[in-house]
TrEMBL record:
Residues in Polymerase nucleotidyl transferase domain copies: 49-78
Membrane-spanning intervals of the chain: none
One GO MF term attached to the UniProt entry: nucleotidyltransferase activity
Top-level division of the source organism's lineage: Bacteria
Protein known as: Polymerase nucleotidyl transferase domain-containing protein
Length: 272
């Protein structure tokens, strides 16, 4: 088997991103995010903050890419905390032409380092997030390899998500709603398709086109569908008819194949 990239000599994930890779156009957006969240939560509640996605990877395109960030609080977030974060997202997106959207994830630190999230959110923070401020949670988490366990825990719940996504597609009334949903669904399916084959490929990539091509090596019959999803993830407005096809064709097949190969992720507490 040819080993993929993204791993060190021991076969463990190499952490993505670096603050050194944040390009000059995005530096003021990152600085404002850090200032706004620090001022709102203060050192008493803010444990640490992180960037992820194209900005810390150094591949962000000004005016096209979004800013993705994660905040870890010392205690669990409240409804007021989530509302405050939504306001920061809106304000940054409005104030800076460089970003085409801002997304901030908000979690309590105990959840991020807890056993239940060890191979999902824990892996995400340790391997795909770039520390911006505060103690780095990666120091408390294990080193990770591209295993079937990791595949199951990160994307083994697609089958649970599909009914809700189909309902959202059916009730979307504006072009903007469908465009946002197409982008989200396409990204989800490409990343799920990649993690389906990740243990066999033996590596990691966050690049959507490469993810689709790696998937295509193992499932050539579904290669063109996955390539179309990767294209829609980048330019969803150009593919207005693709959303329904993804949710009724590629999505259900992928969910079934994932269950057959890796099994189902455990349902969250309280889930029916």
């Amino acid at each position: 088997m040819t080993r993929g990239r993204g791993l060190d000599r021991d076969g463990c994930f190499v952490r993505e991103g670096s603050l050194d890779r944040v390009s000059a156009p995005f530096a003021p957006v990152v600085a404002e995010f850090r200032a706004r969240t620090g001022a709102h939560f203060g050192p008493g509640r803010l444990h640490s903050s992180y960037l992820f996605g194209s900005v810390p990877r150094g591949t962000a395109v000004p005016g096209v890419s979004d800013l993705d960030a994660l905040i870890a609080l010392r205690d669990g977030p409240t409804d007021a905390d989530h509302a405050a974060v939504r306001a920061v997202e809106h304000d940054l997106d409005t104030a800076f032409w460089q970003v085409n959207g801002v997304g901030i994830l908000l979690f309590g630190v105990d959840r991020l380092r807890g056993e239940r999230e060890r191979y999902d959110l824990g892996w995400f923070v340790a391997c795909l997030c770039t520390p911006l401020g505060g103690p780095d949670l990666a120091a408390e988490l294990p080193r990770y390899r591209p295993t079937s366990l990791l595949a199951r825990e990160t994307n083994g719940d697609l089958f649970r998500s599909l009914p809700g996504l189909r309902e959202r597609a059916a009730t979307a009334t504006t072009e903007a709603e469908r465009t946002r949903l197409t982008r989200g669904v396409a990204r989800r399916l490409v990343r799920t398709g990649f993690t389906l084959v990740m243990p066999r490929w033996g590596g990691w990539t966050s690049d959507l086109d490469e993810s689709a091509e790696v998937f295509a090596r193992y499932y050539p019959a579904h290669a063109e569908q996955m390539r179309a999803a990767a294209r829609a993830a980048r330019a969803p407005a150009a593919y207005p008819e693709l959303l329904d096809a993804l949710l009724t064709g590629l999505g259900p097949w992928l969910a079934d194949e994932y269950l057959a190969v890796h099994g189902a992720k455990a349902a969250p507490p309280g889930a029916g």
